[in-house]
Specification:
Elements lengths: L3 E4 L9 H10 L4 E4 L1 E3 L4 H4 L5 E3 L4 H9 L4 E6 L15 H14 L3 E5 L6 H4 L3 H22 L2 E5 L8 H11 L4 E6 H6 L4 H8 L3 E6 L30 H10 L5 E4 L4 H14 L3
Parallel strand pairs: 1-10, 2-5, 3-4, 5-6, 6-7, 7-8, 8-9, 9-10
Helix pairs in contact: 4-6, 6-7, 9-10
Length: 282
């Protein structure tokens, strides 16, 4: 099985998820992720201007939305705030559990989360050891659900802890769960000061999904000071991240399966898709 390339489902602003998937299919992709979601209801969905899926909806309604367009639902994003105190207003443990239950119900193997950057004075003052404890504590119950539902939770480099290859290892050790793996985000890891090739060399067998991002030259000065970006306008191969070397290292590490372009703008998306296909992806 070759590396399969999909697209994230936030490509058109002020547009429903169905419209995002229609465009992804027209561009020739065979898979996509469920990008934006939350529990409860959403006014924006009711009035037609938000591409969000409710984690409280019937999972099979979500699956049918993808099936009707002959798209594989490759993963469910559950990017969380794992460093600030728990609050009903923060995406965290409860929402990750709901994402795992949805994934398990409809046969999606991967739920992708991240530690994120703390926003409160409490979270910003955590020591490294306290931060790792906070991540492990907030993932403890979701990982139990994931083990029972046959789902993998993949932690993505998207924060000052997970953007360090060394500290990613400490997260994995502390959580100590067979249901925990890694989603390699090429742009986030590079931007946060980490080395994608080092991550692959050390944890290649644990990488189960990839988010593809390249970044422009003007981001070089921000490296090591900014932790994560949701998307990029830069096509793969046009930026400062060595995407070809990363792709080849993944192949050498026997990675095969789904990956996702986190790139905005039709020209950049299609150019990136062609870039990866020339390397052997489908």
């Amino acid at each position: 099985m070759a590396i399969k390339v999909g697209c994230f489902a936030l490509i058109h602003p002020f547009s429903l998820l169905e419209n995002q998937l229609d465009q992804i299919k027209k561009w020739g992709f065979s898979c996509a992720d469920l990008t934006d979601n939350s529990d409860g209801a959403c006014l924006g969905v009711e009035y037609g201007f938000t591409a969000l899926a409710s984690l409280d909806s019937n999972p099979y309604d979500v699956k049918r939305m993808f099936d009707q367009r002959e798209l594989v639902l490759s993963s469910i994003c559950a990017h969380a705030n794992l460093l600030d105190p728990t609050s009903p207003a923060r995406y965290g443990t409860s929402q990750i559990i709901k994402a795992v239950k949805m994934a398990g119900a409809i046969g999606v193997k991967h739920v992708i989360t991240a530690d994120g950057e703390p926003k409160t004075p409490f979270g910003k003052k955590l020591t490294i050891a306290e931060a790792i404890f906070s991540i492990a504590e907030k993932l403890y119950e979701p990982l139990k659900f994931a083990e029972d539902y046959g789902v993998s939770i993949l932690i993505e480099p998207h924060g000052h802890i997970s953007d360090s290859v060394k500290l990613m290892g400490e997260i994995l050790d502390r959580c100590n769960s067979k249901a925990l793996g890694i989603n390699l985000d090429t742009g986030n890891l590079w931007l946060g000061g980490g080395e994608p090739l080092e991550m692959i060399a050390r944890f290649g067998s644990l990488i189960e999904h990839v988010h593809w991002k390249d970044l422009p030259q003007d981001m070089v000065d921000k490296r090591g000071t900014q932790f994560g970006c949701g998307m990029t306008l830069t096509a793969l191969g046009d930026g400062v991240v060595d995407i070809e070397s990363i792709y080849n290292a993944l192949v050498k590490a026997d990675f095969e399966g789904y990956s996702t372009l986190e790139i905005a703008g039709e020209d950049a998306v299609l150019k990136s898709f062609e870039f990866l296909k020339k390397l052997g992806a489908t």
